[in-house]
Each structure stands twice: as structure tokens, then as C-alpha cells.
Amino acid sequence: MCCDAYKGLLLHSSLNDTNNLRTHVKSCPKKEKSSFAYQKTVHDFYSPLKSSPIPREIKFSVTEACTEFCALDARAFDVMRGDGFKNLAKTLFDADRATSTSSIEITDLLPHPTYFMNKIISK
């Protein structure tokens, strides 16, 4: 390998590994650093995770409500990972957003349990 600033030849062998290059970099008269002088990290390619835009108080409130849901209705905490639960939560969230000007009761929004039984029996 040849250095442009030093105009010298650097030899590489399995015995010296990268020691010649390391020694040369320390003593090379050309001290300005190029873009190749450092090893890129993952952060150079990907931006770090951004903090959640959800306020901490709201996140805590939702966590408490999910905990109470599982405890009061004897459900496994894993139920919140399911696609059905996520779809229900998103639908309720979207319904609230669509009716944000008026206050609605959640019991008015949710269907009565017999609705499902009638749907199953009719099929």
C-alpha cells in the first residue's frame, strides 16, 4: 500500500497484520482527517429511535387500564399482543377521535353480548 502524503510503501503480511498501517497513521505528516479516517457506526446509517410522542401520563394511564382489564376480567396479559385486541383498541380510539366534540359513553359504543350470540346462531 502506498501513502499519498508520505510517498512510501507500506507492506502487509500475516505476521505484522495491520501494525504497519497503524504506525504509519500515527506518524504520517498529513494530519488532516478524511472521511475515511474513522469507522462508521450503525448510527451513521440509521437514525436513533425517537422518543414516543405520547405523554408519559397518558401512557401510564393506558398501562393501568390494561392491567385492570386483565385483573378484573381474568384475562392473560398476553391478550394485548393479539391482533384482535389491537384492532379493537384502534377502532375505539378512532371512534373517539371522530366524535371528539361530544362526550360518548363507552357502554353505548360497545355492542351487547347477546348481539354476538344472535349473529352466531343466525349463521
From TrEMBL:
Recorded superkingdom? Eukaryota
Residue ranges constituting the Hermes trasposase DNA-binding domain according to the UniProt record: 61-114
Q: Which InterPro entries match?
A: Hermes_transposase_DNA-db
Q: What is this protein called?
A: Hermes trasposase DNA-binding domain-containing protein
